[in-house]
C-alpha cells in the first residue's frame, strides 16, 4: 500500500484547485499583458491562439473555468470563434434565420447584412481583438448578441425540421438553449468586468 504522500506524488490528473489557479493566472497574464503592450501584432497572435496552439490546448487551460470568470469568458469566446471558422455555412444560415427576430442584437453584434462567411470570421476576430485592445465588456456583449442571434436562428431551423427530422430538431433546440445560456454568461461576464470583479 502507498502512503498518502506517495499517492499524491503519482503523476495523473491535475489537482482541481491547481487547475483553477493555472486557468486564472494564464487568463490574467494573456489579457493584461496584451492590453498593456498595445502592440497590434501581439493582439493578432492572441486572436489566432487556437490556430497556433490548437483548441485542445486552449480547452485544457480554460474550458473548466466557471463562466463568470476571465478564463471562462475567454474559453467561450475562443470556442465561438472556432465554430465560426470551422462551419461558416451553418453559422451564416443560423444568423440569417435569427437576425430579423433579434434586430437589437444585430446592432450590437455589428455584422453586415447579409453576412458572408468572411464577414462572420472578421466579426469573431474583431470581438477577440476587443478583448485584448479595446473595451473587454463591449467585446463580451458583442459576442453575446451574436450568440443570441444564432440561438434564435437555431430555434427557427429546429422548428422547420420538426416534422421531417424530429431528432435533429431536438438537437438543434438543445443547441439553441446552450447558445442562449452562453450569451447570458457572456453578458454577466461583461457586467462583472465593468464592476472590476471579473477574475
List keywords for this structure.
single chain; 199 residues; mainly alpha; 78% helix
Summarize the structure in words:
- The chain is mostly helical.
- Helices cover 78% and strands 0% of the residues.
- Helix 7 packs across helix 10 (136-161) and helix 9 (117-133) runs antiparallel to helix 10.
- It is globular and about 50 Å long.
Terminal CA distance reads: 41 Å
Number of helices: 11
Sheet-strand content, in percent, reads: under 5%
**Rg, Cα atoms, Å:** 19 Å
Query: What would the principal axes of the Cα set say about the shape?
Result: globular
Oligomeric assembly: single chain
Structural class call reads mainly alpha
Roughly how much helix do the residues carry, as a percent range?
Answer: over 70%
- Element string (H = helix, E = strand): HHHHHHHHHHH
Please summarize what this structure is.
With 199 residues, the protein is mainly α. It is built from 11 helices and no strands.
Topology readout:
Layout: H1 4-8, H2 16-37, H3 40-47, H4 49-53, H5 55-62, H6 70-86, H7 88-99, H8 103-109, H9 117-133, H10 136-161, H11 166-194
Helix pairs in contact: 3-9, 5-6, 6-9, 7-9, 7-10, 8-10, 9-10, 10-11
Amino acid at each position: 500500500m502507498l502512503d498518502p504522500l506517495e499517492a499524491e506524488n503519482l503523476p495523473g490528473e491535475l489537482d482541481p484547485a491547481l487547475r483553477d489557479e493555472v486557468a486564472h493566472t494564464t487568463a490574467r497574464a494573456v489579457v493584461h499583458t496584451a492590453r498593456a503592450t498595445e502592440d497590434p501584432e501581439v493582439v493578432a497572435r492572441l486572436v489566432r491562439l487556437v490556430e497556433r496552439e490548437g483548441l485542445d490546448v486552449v480547452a485544457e487551460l480554460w474550458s473548466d473555468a466557471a463562466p463568470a470568470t476571465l478564463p471562462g469568458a475567454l474559453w467561450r469566446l475562443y470556442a465561438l470563434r472556432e465554430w465560426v471558422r470551422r462551419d461558416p455555412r451553418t453559422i451564416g444560415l443560423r444568423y440569417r434565420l435569427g437576425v430579423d427576430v433579434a434586430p437589437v442584437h444585430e446592432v450590437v453584434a455589428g455584422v453586415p447584412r447579409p453576412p458572408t462567411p468572411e464577414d462572420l470570421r472578421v466579426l469573431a476576430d474583431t470581438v477577440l481583438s476587443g478583448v485584448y485592445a479595446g473595451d473587454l465588456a463591449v467585446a463580451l456583449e458583442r459576442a453575446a448578441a451574436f450568440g443570441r442571434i444564432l440561438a434564435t436562428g437555431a430555434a427557427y431551423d429546429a422548428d422547420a425540421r420538426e416534422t421531417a427530422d424530429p431528432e435533429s430538431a431536438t438537437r438543434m433546440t438543445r443547441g439553441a438553449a446552450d447558445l442562449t445560456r452562453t450569451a447570458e454568461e457572456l453578458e454577466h461576464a461583461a457586467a462583472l468586468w465593468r464592476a472590476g470583479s471579473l477574475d
